[in-house]
């Protein structure tokens, strides 16, 4: 095994996703020198995450990525916005992380909803997915009385390494209890959720150095530099969008996975949330992150209950078939937020190809509305970049371009959030890597 002095320095970006956890290593020039991914460690019973198992998984991937060639000088994690845990004085998890999509949240939210007074500077709409619901659930779990702090699942590994509790400001914005204008907790909402602000950790801005990396496992493997630091990250899509913004100032990221999430960095110091646009602090700026979400997977899954329609959609998305004229006919109505079911209109055709075309056309049109909402928050017309699993499907990209009449530029790098987190870590220690190289938009520099 090489000594740490013989290894090349890298930064690591971590993406704690709902489905997978990813680790990506970036060198000082912006070259991606390694990446790993594995399934998010969820319970087979209720889909909750054991944060300790997550920490082990992340450290395993860091060791694997570095092998005997690299040493980490900084690490930054981004990921799911609302999931979290209560921890004790030793930062040992007391509760599991209730998934943002867990159906148990509905009953908790129903109990809270009537007591939540609307707040003008809240960054997100009130619904069952928000962190405040997870707070309320967690404090009712066994052992909660000995809790020292709440930690966002995304921040857990970073807090464990730094030996201190914190919450990234982009995750504070997802709680439904954070005042985006004053950057303070809304006391009455905190009281309804977690009971006391004493259980909430200090909020750190994305890009802040939180502390040094202390990990016996990583040290024994020789993959952590003596002065390695933990850097605050935050919510996954804004961090990925910020990375794209570094490559093309003022650009918009259209991330298409389970949902279609459109995100950008606005220079405006504070923008109020609307019914369709969430807000969060700007990243390494005095501006505002703006975010709009449209559902993809749930609508597709509903339509695919008809096997012939599902097969036709798969062929269209892959580019193996051409859509018919119903691509432009509004005969499919996507499901609404909060679980409202999709439907077809009364004059919808029976043919599978036509139904499949109408579904994909309607979803492309919904994405275009999200792009317009975000574009309205920006000072000038912005170039749109696409990423996520759906962006790898040529038929879907062609449908998007046909329906929206926009040029679609697909980012080659498949792990945009992890790349954004790595770029944030690099900036924190004074590196200036090329975002274009890191995102695969410029010719890769040969690694030595």
Automatic annotation (TrEMBL):
Q: Which InterPro entries match?
A: ATPase_NBD, FGGY_Carb_Kinase, FGGY_N
- Report the domain of life of the source organism: Bacteria
Q: Which GO terms describe its molecular function?
A: kinase activity
Q: Which UniProt keywords apply?
A: Carbohydrate metabolism, Kinase, Transferase, Xylose metabolism
> In this protein, which residues make up the domain named Carbohydrate kinase FGGY N-terminal?
11-238
Sorted alphabetically, the Gene Ontology BP terms of this entry are: D-xylose metabolic process
Which family does the record claim for this protein? Belongs to the FGGY kinase family.
Q: What is this protein called?
A: Carbohydrate kinase FGGY N-terminal domain-containing protein
Q: Which organism is it from?
A: Mycolicibacterium madagascariense
């Amino acid at each position: 095994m090489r000594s740490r002095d013989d290894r090349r320095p890298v930064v690591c970006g971590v993406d704690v996703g709902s489905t997978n956890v990813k680790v990506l290593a970036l060198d000082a020039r912006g070259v991606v020198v390694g990446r790993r991914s594995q399934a998010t460690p969820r319970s087979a019973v209720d889909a909750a995450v054991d944060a300790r198992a997550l920490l082990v998984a992340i450290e395993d991937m860091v060791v694997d990525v570095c092998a005997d060639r690299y040493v980490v000088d900084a690490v930054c994690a981004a990921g799911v916005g609302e999931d979290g845990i209560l921890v004790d004085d030793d930062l040992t998890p007391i509760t599991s992380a209730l998934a943002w999509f867990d159906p148990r949240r509905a009953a908790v939210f129903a109990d809270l909803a009537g007591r939540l007074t609307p707040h003008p500077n809240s960054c997100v709409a009130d619904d069952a997915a928000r962190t405040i619901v997870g707070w309320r659930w967690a404090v009712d779990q066994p052992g909660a009385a000995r809790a020292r702090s709440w930690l966002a699942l995304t921040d857990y590994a970073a807090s464990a390494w730094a030996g201190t509790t914190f919450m990234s400001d982009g995750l504070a914005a997802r709680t439904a209890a954070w005042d985006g204008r004053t950057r303070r907790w809304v006391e009455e909402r905190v009281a309804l959720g977690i009971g006391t602000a004493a259980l909430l950790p200090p909020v750190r801005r994305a890009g802040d150095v939180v502390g040094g990396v202390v990990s016996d496992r990583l040290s024994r493997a020789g993959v952590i530099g003596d002065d390695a630091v933990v850097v605050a990250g935050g919510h996954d899509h804004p961090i990925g969008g910020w990375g794209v913004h570094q490559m093309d100032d003022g650009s918009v990221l259209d991330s298409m996975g389970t949902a279609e999430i459109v995100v950008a960095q606005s220079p405006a110091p504070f923008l109020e949330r609307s019914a369709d646009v969430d807000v969060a602090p700007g990243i390494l700026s005095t501006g505002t992150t703006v975010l709009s979400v449209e559902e993809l997977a749930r609508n597709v899954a509903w339509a695919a209950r008809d096997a012939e329609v599902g097969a036709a959609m798969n062929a269209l998305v892959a580019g193996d078939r051409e859509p018919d004229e119903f691509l432009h006919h509004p005969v499919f109505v996507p499901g609404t937020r909060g679980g409202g079911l999709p439907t077809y209109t009364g004059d919808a055709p029976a043919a599978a190809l036509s139904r499949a075309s109408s579904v994909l056309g309607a979803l492309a049109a919904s994405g275009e509305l999200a792009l317009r909402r975000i574009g309205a928050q920006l000072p000038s017309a912005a170039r749109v970049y696409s990423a996520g699993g759906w962006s790898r499907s040529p038929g879907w990209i062609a449908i998007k371009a046909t329906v929206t009449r926009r040029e679609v530029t697909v980012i080659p790098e498949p792990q945009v959030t992890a790349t954004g987190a790595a770029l944030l870590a690099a900036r924190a220690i004074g590196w200036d890597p090329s975002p274009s190289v890191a995102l695969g938009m410029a010719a890769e520099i040969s690694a030595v």
